[in-house]
Amino acid sequence: MTSATDSPSPAAIRLIATDLDGTLLRDDKTVSDRTVAALAAAEEAGIEVFFVTGRPARWMGVVSDHVHGHGLAICANGAAVADLHAGGELVKVRPLERAIALDVVHSLRAAAPGTTFAVELATGIHYEPAYPPFHQDPGATVAVAEKLLHEETPGTGVPVLKLLAHHAELTPDDFLALARTTAGDRASFTRSSPTALLEVSGPGVSKASTLELCCAERGISPAEVVAFGDMPNDVEMLSWAGTSYAMGNAHPAALAAASGRTATNSEDGVAVVIERIIAEHRAAGIGR
After folding, report:
1. Spatial CA neighbour of 20 closest among 70, 71, 76, 69
2. Which of 36, 57, 151, 234 has the greatest count of CB atoms below 10 A from its CB?
3. 128: helix, coil or strand?
4. Closest Cα to residue 123, out of 96, 160, 92, 91?
5. Taking Cα atoms as reference points, which of 248, 241, 184 lies closest to residue 208?
6. What is the DSSP string of 160-185?
């Protein structure tokens, strides 16, 4: 693995895809002045920037002012594409079918007793009584998962973006491995939290697969993409992009998937690489 300072960048980068928490954002959930300047410089140079995150669209206020041009962000680990210029309106949804979600609930309860669940809908999150409460969403419904996932007429309910599963005793990686073994043939499992909190999406739905769709719409190849991430939910994206960087604070799985490594999120590791890409583009006479 090469570092941000000695890794050669491709001749022409057209799109930067970056995770937020633990990657672009500092530990206090802010975007540093240096990173704001780097993002603006990338857009000025004709390089699109996509925020690709596990966050729902309603939690994108921290970066909404820094989305230029297209205004789009990939949210909920690829389950939704949101237009931040339009208040977070969802322009693409790749839902988790409720029947599959219920099957996963039953399978995980049997394999890991004590698992509790939350359901992330396109309109907000709802969770079981024993699930760690979401203080950011005071209007959430609290009920058992079967009730949260029930719809009177199949196919008419609000889309389910992802299912969240929490366990108070298992280690995060052990819980992820168990879930994939138990139900990985029915849904996509990943995690981004330091606790045993799993994120469950529809089959084949990931940050990478939705980013690939967005890039295809723009005629952008993987070789023209640089990606940044720090956790297991970034692994597919880091592997897909032609060039990718794991943060200095990254999980071992992200480090193994990336082609390069940069500084930590608190050291503006994303900005470090963007600044170098722009400098090399200018030296080569590429871009605007």
Report:
1. 76
2. 234
3. coil
4. 160
5. 241
6. EEEEEEE-SSS-HHHHHHHHHHHHTT
Cβ proximity of 243 and 262 under 8 Å = no
- Euclidean distance between CA atoms 59 and 204, whole angstroms: 24
Residue 270 tokens read as 């994303």
Q: Which residue is associated with the tokens 């400098």? A: 279
Kind of pairing, strands 89-93 and 80-83? antiparallel
Let me know: does 81 contact 74? Beta carbons within 8 Å.
Answer: yes
**Beta 197-201 vs 160-166: how paired, if at all?**
antiparallel
What are the tens digits of pLDDT across the range 201-211?
A: 999 999 999 99
- 201 secondary structure, DSSP code: E
Contact 222, 52 (CB under 8 A): no
Long-range Cβ contacts of 188-193 (<8 Å, 24+ apart)? 190/77, 190/232, 190/233, 190/235, 191/231, 191/232, 191/233, 192/21, 192/22, 192/54, 192/77, 192/231, 192/232, 192/233, 192/234
**What mean pLDDT is reported for the chain?**
92
The span from the CA of 210 to the CA of 200, in Å, is 15
> Given the structure tokens 């690489």, which residue do they identify?
273
**Whole-angstrom Cα distance, residue 232 to residue 188?**
12
Give the relative orientation of helices 98-111 and 172-183 as an angle to the nearest 10 degrees: 120
Q: How many CA atoms lie within 13 A of 35 on its CB side?
A: 24
The tokens for 21 are: 């928490």
Q: What is the pTM of this model?
A: 0.93
Q: How far is CA 213 from the centre of its chain?
A: 15
**Residue 26 confidence (pLDDT) above 90:** yes
* pLDDT score of 282: 80
